[in-house]
Predict the structure.
Amino acid sequence: MPELPEVETVCRGLAEALEGHRFATIELRRGDLRWPLPADFAERLEGRLVRRVRRRAKYILLETDGAEVMLAHLGMSGKMLVEPPGRTPPPLGPHDHVIFTTDHGMRVAFNDVRRFGMLDLCAADALDQHPLLQGLGPEPLGNDFSAPVLSTRLAGKRTPIKAALLDQHVVAGLGNIYVSEALFRARISPRRQANTVAGARAERLVPAIKLVLQEAIAAGGSSLRDYVQASGELGCFQHNFDVYDREGEPCQNCQRNSVRRIVQSGRSSFYCPTCQR
DNA sequence: CACGAACCCTGGCTGC
DNA sequence: TGCAGCCAGGGTTCGT
């Protein structure tokens, strides 16, 4: 579910709710997520002050005043649901797996229907070596993500550009929605061989990626099925899709052809075969 | 090594 | 109404 803009939005909500506050209790209601939660997860975090919540790729990193950082991934259906103090929170459901409370009465529930998400703890000075963070590609919104950088990373890849952009080791944070949207804006076919995306095509693609991600963050992400912000509000960017989930609808660019859906490495791609080459 | 398919899990929707 | 089958924003593991 959540790609970079959704995770960024959730991080901002968590930062507002948690930064500067201390975890009081942490309740593990179900530990068999994507990987089993460490058995001592709660005791290692309880009493810790949350210094900063930030994002790397699609991971949420919660820095504390202790030696460890909490790592969270939302998988396809994960949510972080914030309930502010002074209000009776809604009753917990079967998919509220971990409940965090703070010393000022904030409640955050990690909820994940499909349990593809994960939580872990990692020594702050060894984050780079964490197996899930190791080898991740550059942040697409970072200053060092440029057309030359992208084409270098695509060099030698014979796989379709769609698959290459989904590979978090090439560039970190894109998912199925924003790859389709960025390729549409750059007028590049998802079927094009990755190593041919260089020069002028890369010069179109990089700004297209940056722009669509920035617009989506400004809209609070895209809500299709499960995704909500930490506050529970929906994102709005799904109303601005040009091609994603719009099979058969007219192309927003040429208005003549209709958006086509194809399956690549088991996942849907949406594009205009005329505008995108 | 690089690639694609299978798999992890639950729930919503479609079509018979 | 019921149920089988398909599909979903992700990522790892396995086989070729």
